[in-house]
Amino acid sequence: MSDYRISRLEVENFKSLVDFRMDLVKFTCLVGLNGSGKSTVLQFVDFLSELMRGNLSEWLMERQWSANDLCFWDESSKLIRFLVEITDIEGRHAGIWKGEFNTLLLKCEREELVFGDTKFKVFDNKFEASHTQKSYDITMDYEGSLLSKVRDPFLPEPVKRFRDFFRGSRTLELLSPRLMRQRTKGPSETIGRGGERLSAYLHDLLPEKRHAIESELKRVYPHFQKLATRELEPDVRVLEIVEDFQGKQFKTEARHLNDGLLRILAMITNSVSDAGLLVFDEIENGINPELVEFVINLLVETEQQVIVTTHSPMILNYLDDEVAKSGVIYLYKTNEGFTRSILFFSIPSLQKKLELMGPGEAFVDTNLLELFQEIDGLIKGEK
Ligand SMILES: Nc1ncnc2c1ncn2[C@@H]1O[C@H](COP(=O)(O)OP(=O)(O)O)[C@@H](O)[C@H]1O
Ligand SMILES: [Mg+2]
Question: How far is the CA of 210 from the CAs of 205, 216, 245, 265, in angstroms?
Fold first, then answer.
C-alpha cells in the first residue's frame, strides 16, 4: 500500500488549468457544470503519473491528442508548470514536486523534489541528488520526468517511493464497457484506462486478490458465483462470469455482460489493487441507483486515495457531512475560460443549506448558474 497522498495541485497551462489550484483529501469528489474542467483535472493527474512512467508519446496516442492540445488555447508558452504537494497517510506534510514540462520536447527540463532534507533536482541538462552530493550530466533520452529513467541507486529513498506512488496510480477516466468486453492479449499489469485489458489482468491475478473481488461482487449481485478467465489461443484471454440460478450454474462471456456489472467490476478490481491512487470519471454512469451506495462506500472506505467526478446529487447524499465538507469540490469556468476550484460547502449559501439538509439535497437545491454570481461576489470581496 502506498505511503503518500496528494494534498495540493498547482498547474499553469494544462488545457483549461491556467493558474489553477486545488486542495485534495483522501476522498475528493469533483462537481460542476459540463465543460467546467472535471475530466481535465483527472487527465492532469493521469498526466503526472505518465511523467513518472515516461511514455508521453504513447499516452498522447492512446487519447488521440497531439502535444499542441496540452496547453491553453491561446497561450504562446509551450511549457506546463506544476507543483504537487504530498502528505503521508496521516496527513503530515511529506514533500513537494515542482516541474516544468516542455510540450515540444515531451519532457520536464526542470524538476525539483524536496522531501525534508532530501532533494532531487534536474536543471541545465544535469541532475543532482542530495544523498550522492554530486551532479551528473544527463546523457540519455527521456520523455516525461527524468525519474522515469534514472536508475534506483541514484535516487533517494523517499523520491523512489514518490515515483512509485505515481507510477502505480490507476485512472479509469476512459472507462468503457465496450472496451471491457474485449478479449485481450496478456499479460497485463493494469486493466487499462478504458478497462480494455481487464480479461488479461484478471487472468494472471493472485488467487487471494481474485477472491477479494469475487466476495465484493457477491454483495451486489446475489446470483454471481465467480470470475473465470481462460486462454482462447496462446496469449488471448477471455473473461467469463459464472452465475447461479436455482442451483444451476451458467457461464457468460464478457461480451454478453451488462454495463453496470462491468463498471462495478472495474472499480472493485482497482480498489483491491496495490495502487495508492484511484481516479474515476462520472462514477454513477450506467449503474443502478440501488448500487450507487455500494460504490460510494467502496470508494470512501478503501485505504487508497480516490478522486472521482459526478453529475449526480444522489452520490452526495451517501456521503457523511464531514466527508462532503472536506472533499466535495466545485469546479467552474471564469469568463476567460480558466477552470477554478472552490470547496463546495465553504460557499456561504451551501454552508447554510447543509445545516438543514443532506449534501445531495443541498446540491439539488442549488442553481449552478446562479452560484457563479455568488462565487464571483466572494472573490471580488476578497480583492
Ligand atoms: N486546450 C484547451 N485549452 C483551454 N480549454 C480547453 C482546452 N481543451 C478543452 N478545453 C475546454 O475544456 C472543456 C472540457 O472540459 P472537461 O474537463 O471535459 O469538462 P467536464 O467538467 O464536463 O468534464 C471543453 O469544452 C473546452 O471548453
Ligand atoms: Mg467530463
Answer: 6, 10, 22, 11
